[in-house]
Amino acid sequence: MSVQVTFLGGLGEIGRNCAAVEIDGRIALIDCGLMFPDEHMLGVDLVLPDFSWLVERRDDVECVILTHGHEDHVGSLSYFLAEINVPVFGTELSVRLAASRVEENEIDAVFQPVPDNEWTEQGPFRFKLVPVAHSIPQGAAVALETPEGLIVHSGDFKLDPTPVDGRTTDLPTFAELGRQGVRLLLADSTNAEVSGFVPSESSLGHSLYDIIAESSGRVIAACFASHLHRVQQIVDAALDSGRKVAFLGRSMVRNVDIAQDLKVINVPQDSVVGIDDILEMKPRDVCVISTGSQGEPFAALSLMAAGEHRKVKLDEGDTVLISATPIPGNEKSVSQVINGLTRRGARVFHGRNANVHVSGHGSRDELLTFLNVVRPQAFVPVHGEYRHLRAHADLALAMNVPEVVVCEDGDAIVLDGKKTKVLRRAVPAGYVYLDGTGVGDVRTAIRDRRHLADDGVIVVTVGVDMQTGEVVHGPHLDSHGFMDEPEEILKAAQTEIIDMLGKGKTDADNCRRKIVQAVRTITRRETARRPVVIPVVLEF
């Protein structure tokens, strides 16, 4: 009896983590994450896995099992559950965080918290969640019993000996699973190229305190809203230095409330003030804990950097602490925010100039230790860009793991007796793009944006004298996801746009219509594709 594991995301990229385990024709998803767009994905807010294969088999899908509550592991749940509504299992915090996002999209789903190390059954699936240390509380690995033996998915983890909440990676349980025999291990590869061990999360405590205590003005500390261990340490440092804390950002306020309710973090209520209250307080008495560590255009920190935030105006002597590293693709945005904050007179501390961040992913020696404890028969590295997967595979080979396979999105692993088969490009696994128009109507959003994922987007920028119809700027054409070498097609489209615009008095709407018509004429004729065309008309 064969068992199949199909990868829908997370292999060859950071984000979109999603794997489907199939037993007896039934399917369980491990994680259902999203990816944030890079700077070339014009007009795109989020990038989702392609669920089309699962939608075609919706009656076979049994459940979703979450490893932890980060967006790259739970952020696509709303869009998935809108199409295939099945129970969702995870640790208590993971399901609460995920449920809060799903409820915002008005989707009614069943979320079932699972205690650590207790076997749970759903259809043909029998699994348990094994504690691991990560940068969010209550991270877990998934151990699945299958007819072909144990499958273990590590989730995101590191071997932190002194985590903030005392919940360490449960190596004794992993060792016991290893003694039973692990048929297939899937493990986090993010830091496979980094030697040594990642410092403990709790090692940041003194550094955060020193920065906050020495600031003569307000402190604005930015981190991921889900990074609740970091939030706890910032709160502790602020209180120890005699400050009150204010939370800024809807997701930050929501996640802190959930964590407080579950007693995952401890923030004394008399130490919390509203964001409006800080306007009347001395700067030295305030610490604002905010979202926006990734340079998001409309996040609070970006608005502060631009001097446009309604509540928080930075002054000389203020300190900004960015306690995160940029997600790949966000480096330029974060750099621009740091420059803006510095121009406003703030002292800015971040991962490259201060000890304010440690990774939640184990480095090479931790991965080697984990492989030695689990001792799998077969190994597939997951969660990482291709170079990370390759580096992790090399570690497994050095540990004499019998079968090591590097897979990519869309590939599948079939466990059939002693054989481990690889099916390349077994299912569609391309990007599905989503923009803000989908909020509140995710069913429509997925259908609309699948077209964008298939055929790409072309953005046309042109300046036109509205009185004469003369093109005075451009046209400039940029494409993403359209084709590998679009230069000749874009050049032909540029000529067609100039011819189509013609001469004579015009208006912006007329220009936009003609631009779309011109580009579609060329792309259909030359490529048979129908990219989304976004015309940007500058009026002169």
List the topology elements.
Elements: E1 3-9, E2 18-23, E3 26-30, E4 46-48, H1 52-56, E5 61-65, H2 71-74, H3 77-81, E6 88-90, H4 92-104, E7 111-113, E8 120-122, E9 125-132, E10 139-146, E11 149-153, H5 171-180, E12 182-188, H6 205-214, E13 219-222, H7 228-240, E14 244-248, H8 250-261, E15 286-290, H9 300-305, E16 319-322, H10 331-343, E17 347-349, H11 364-374, E18 378-382, H12 386-398, E19 403-404, E20 412-416, E21 419-423, E22 432-434, H13 442-455, E23 457-464, E24 471-480, H14 487-501, H15 508-527, E25 532-539
Parallel strand pairs: 3-5, 5-6, 6-7, 11-12, 12-18, 13-15, 13-16, 14-15, 16-17, 18-19, 23-25
Antiparallel strand pairs: 1-2, 1-20, 2-3, 4-22, 8-9, 9-10, 10-11, 20-21, 23-24
Helix pairs in contact: 4-8, 6-7, 14-15
